[in-house]
Structure to design on (140 residues):
């Protein structure tokens, strides 16, 4: 019913983002649980930048631009369907915060957990607001 309009797309994006929030909470909890494990490498979830790239690729572009490395104008970038974007769990091999090879900083992880919880609450409030608007229209 609402699939092919902005309401449906917004709700789908909220649903996907909330699912990523749940996954991110599990990953962060695993990081905190292994704060004292030797040679443990923290993990993170990437999703938002790939989703932004997909949404940006759906926007109509202006006139084609000429790329200096090509004889042909760049008529269209590759369009990415936002529904194909999946969250990715990535390991952080770059940083080391302890002598035992563990790179989990409990303060940073606690901050990330709090940020994730606040984002999840915000998304539930936005979804609730959208449903309340539908209820107002149906009552009217």
């Amino acid at each position: 019913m609402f699939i092919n309009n902005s309401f449906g797309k917004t709700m789908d994006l909220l649903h996907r983002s909330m699912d990523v929030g749940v996954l991110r909470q599990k990953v962060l909890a695993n990081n905190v649980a292994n704060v004292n494990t030797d040679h443990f490498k923290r993990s993170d979830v990437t999703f938002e930048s790939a989703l932004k790239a997909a949404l940006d690729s759906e926007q109509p572009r202006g006139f084609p631009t000429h790329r200096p490395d090509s004889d042909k104008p760049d008529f269209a970038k590759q369009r990415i369907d936002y529904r194909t974007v999946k969250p990715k769990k990535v390991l952080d091999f770059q940083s080391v915060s302890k002598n035992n090879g563990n790179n989990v900083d409990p303060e940073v992880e606690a901050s990330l957990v709090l940020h994730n919880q606040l984002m999840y609450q915000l998304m539930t409030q936005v979804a609730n607001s959208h449903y309340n608007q539908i209820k107002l229209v149906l009552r009217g």
